[in-house]
Every structure is written in C-alpha cells, then in structure tokens.
Amino acid sequence: MGTFIAAFVVLLAFFLLMSIGFLVKKKAVEGSCGGLGALGIEKACDCDDPCDRRKRRMEKEQERQEMLQKNRII
User: Fold this and answer.
1) Do residues 19 and 12 make contact, with C-beta atoms less than 8 angstroms apart?
2) Three-class SS of residue 51?
3) For position 29, what pLDDT does the model report?
4) Disulfide: which of 17, 41, 67, 71 matches 36 by Cβ 3.0-4.6 Å?
5) Neighbours of 57 (CB within 10 A)
6) Residues with Cβ within 8 Å of residue 22, at least 6 apart in sequence
7) Cα 7 to chain center, whole Å?
8) Mean residue pLDDT across the chain
9) pLDDT, mean of residues 46-58
10) How far apart are CA 48 and CA 50, in angstroms?
11) If DSSP states are collapsed to H, E and C, what string results for 14-49?
12) Do you know which Pfam families this protein is assigned to (predicted)?
C-alpha cells in the first residue's frame, strides 16, 4: 500500500509541476520528434482523393474559415 501511495504522490507532483510550467510559460506541451513533418508527410490524410467523410469535414472547415473571415472585427 505504501508503494501505491508513493507512486500516486510522485505522479501528482509531476502533474502539478507540469501545470505550473504551463501557466508560467503559456506554452502547450508538445513532442520533440517533429511528428509527421519529420517523416516528410505534410498531413495525416496524405491520399490524392479523400473519402467522403473527409471531404465533408474539409467543407465544414472551409465554411467555418469563410464565416470567421466575414465576421472578423479587426
């Protein structure tokens, strides 16, 4: 039981330190490997002809961007 409590306290301290670091630096936690860009892939769906679900999602995002641009205050 003592090991469980010690592990929980260490994990809790880790999350507390990460949250303090986030509040101080105002920067999100990110990976160091470069993600898909390091592999030469520009996007997650790298196919020439996306599926219908992806096309709908892209259309919604385009409409959202147009709406944001149209209703822009500054």
Assistant:
1) no
2) coil
3) 63
4) 41
5) 13
6) 28, 29
7) 28
8) 82
9) 80
10) 6
11) HHHHHHHHHHHHCCCCCCCCCHHHHHCCCCCCCCCC
12) NqrM
Q: What is the pLDDT of residue 34?
A: 64
What does R_g of the chain's alpha carbons equal in angstroms? 21
Please give the pLDDT value at position 45. 65
Identity of residue 64: R
pLDDT of residue 4: 94
pLDDT: which is higher, 66 or 29: 66
Q: What are phi and psi of 70, to 5 degrees?
A: -70, -40
Q: Is the dihedral of CA 30, 36, 39, 41 positive or negative?
A: negative
Whether residue 28 is predicted with pLDDT greater than 70 in this model: the reply is no
The DSSP call for residue 71 is T
**Residue 13 token pair:** 């301290």
Asked whether 43 and 35 are in contact (CB, 8 A), the reply is no
